[in-house]
Amino acid sequence: MKTFLATVLTILLLPMVCAAGAIRLKDLVEFDGVRGNDLIGYGLVVGLNGTGDGLRNAPFTEEIMSNILERLGVNVAGEQFRPKNVAAVFVTASLPPFARVGAQVDVTVSAIGDSKSLLGGTLIMTPLNAADGQIYAVAQGTILSGGVVAEGQAASVTKGVPTSGVIPSGARVEREIDFDLTSLSNVRLALREPDFTTAGRIETAINREFGRAVAVMRDSGTVVLDILATRSASTAHALSRAENVLVEPQRKARVVVDQRSGTIVMGSDVRLSRVAVSQGNLTLRIEEAPAVVQPNPFAQGETVIVPRTGASIDEEEGVSLAEVPESTSLSEVVAGLNALGVAPRDMIDILKSLKAAGALHAEFVVR
């Protein structure tokens, strides 16, 4: 783990020439109106190998199955049937921008009942609705599940999530989103990470590309592009030219810590104030080993349990960093701690303490 962490830190803390550099505008912003739309549907999966919903615990599965059979001309009113190879599911998808009728999109299928696995199941024709209640796509196909379940009479093993899966190109678009891009005279560029410096650089880069003032920064997260001023053949031509403009973004100093895996990721512009750090491990052990004392054979007496407790405290030699100079890079401190053999989780505790002491000048994100 230490070797892996050192490798990751070495890669992430390279000079800014290798780390940041110029990035295409399309990777920094979202164009107003050019976005996807979420779709959702409620359907039925069939063909499961006895891993479907228990219809007594999931009556909605029996209801949708009856409705589908009746639409197909099969009358099941008043019938008692308890199949174990069907499961009710939610089907979700994202309709891409400018998706046309007949295009295919991927869908995700997730069980909502007590089904144990969707492996090998087939999704029956399921309409997908948007937030306005209209049907925009229809999904159907064989589910690809990334999980597996193996069980016996006394034990079971589960790997992955067998109750969800995907259907690549499983939905076909039946309705288009009514959006006329050519009618826009201005397009807002929304920064994914708002920053005044980055927004100003985007404005300068776009104006330099078109040779005139066509972009104006409104705030830290918005730059407005005047389509008419670009003198382009259409709005699409103007956006095509603007999205490939190269801009060097300005990032906030940030440290991201994942406590579960012990991963630490940081930027090269993180700085420390003058501070001293001391870290050590304190281990307290308490062991109970009661002894049973019995009377001698043919002697009068009672069996007695005598408590025996062992207690000890072990303190390992700490790691100290005295008088860290002003504006020292955090990468230098972490590299020193890593060279001294400090565990990643101990390093996370040290970073938390540095932030609490006000010596770590960066946004500290703990996941």
UniProtKB/TrEMBL annotation:
<dbReference type="GO" id="GO:0005198">
    <property type="term" value="F:structural molecule activity"/>
</dbReference>
<dbReference type="GO" id="GO:0071973">
    <property type="term" value="P:bacterial-type flagellum-dependent cell motility"/>
</dbReference>
<dbReference type="GO" id="GO:0030288">
    <property type="term" value="C:outer membrane-bounded periplasmic space"/>
</dbReference>
<dbReference type="InterPro" id="IPR001782">
    <property type="entry name" value="Flag_FlgI"/>
</dbReference>
<keyword id="KW-0574">Periplasm</keyword>
<comment type="subunit">
    <text>The basal body constitutes a major portion of the flagellar organelle and consists of four rings (L,P,S, and M) mounted on a central rod.</text>
</comment>
<dbReference type="GO" id="GO:0009428">
    <property type="term" value="C:bacterial-type flagellum basal body, distal rod, P ring"/>
</dbReference>
<keyword id="KW-0969">Cilium</keyword>
<keyword id="KW-0282">Flagellum</keyword>
<comment type="function">
    <text>Assembles around the rod to form the L-ring and probably protects the motor/basal body from shearing forces during rotation.</text>
</comment>
<keyword id="KW-0732">Signal</keyword>
<comment type="similarity">
    <text>Belongs to the FlgI family.</text>
</comment>
<dbReference type="Pfam" id="PF02119">
    <property type="entry name" value="FlgI"/>
</dbReference>
<keyword id="KW-0966">Cell projection</keyword>
<keyword id="KW-0975">Bacterial flagellum</keyword>
<protein>
    <recommendedName>
        <fullName>Flagellar P-ring protein</fullName>
    </recommendedName>
</protein>
